[in-house]
Amino acid sequence: MVKCKLCNQDMSKSDSCSKNKRIIYLDGSRLPAIKFKSPTIKDLELSIKKFENPNFTKSLRKKLTGNMQATIEIMKKNPNTKQRCHDCNVINGGFHHNGCDEEICPRCKGQLITCRCKKKSI
Ligand SMILES: [Zn+2]
Ligand SMILES: [Zn+2]
Ligand SMILES: [Zn+2]
């Protein structure tokens, strides 16, 4: 069981973070956090396209995109399927838990845990 440092909930059992609603930067500015949006088949197909790189071998590509392809198959069978966040497990429209690698920085729109906006650490 992994607990979120912010809301103290078990990430595998909670649908949304109750605390991670705004991002505080070192300069004191605050921006509303971006909620998790369940990817559509189109989003997934676009992500898979990004791996169509001649430098990747077929087997590597399969390894990298296999999960997404499986998800597409599930969604085609049941179009109402909403995926949970693969990292922190929140539902569509929920706030990510602290440190989730899917969370998007509201300032630069990059990956929040690796971007250079100097988010205030908690
Ligand atoms: Zn997440
Ligand atoms: Zn949380
Ligand atoms: Zn950023």
Explain this structure.
The protein is mainly alpha-helical. The protein folds into two domains: 1-36 and 95-122, no CATH class; 39-81. The protein has helices at 41-50, 58-77, and strands at residues 22-24, 30-32. Strands 1-2 form a two-stranded antiparallel sheet. A hairpin with a 5-residue loop joins strand 1 (22-24) and strand 2. Helix 1 runs antiparallel to helix 2 (58-77). The longest helix has 20 residues, at 58-77. The relative contact order is 0.23. Residues 4, 6-7, 9, 17, 19-20, 97-98 line the site of one zinc ion.
Which ligands does the model contain, each kind named once?
zinc ion
> Tally of extended strands?
2
Measured distance between first and last alpha carbons: 21 Å
Order of helices and strands: EEHH
**If helices are DSSP runs of H or I spanning 4 or more residues, what is the number of helices?**
2
Tell me about the biggest sheet?
2 strands, antiparallel
Query: Which geometry do the CA atoms define?
Result: globular
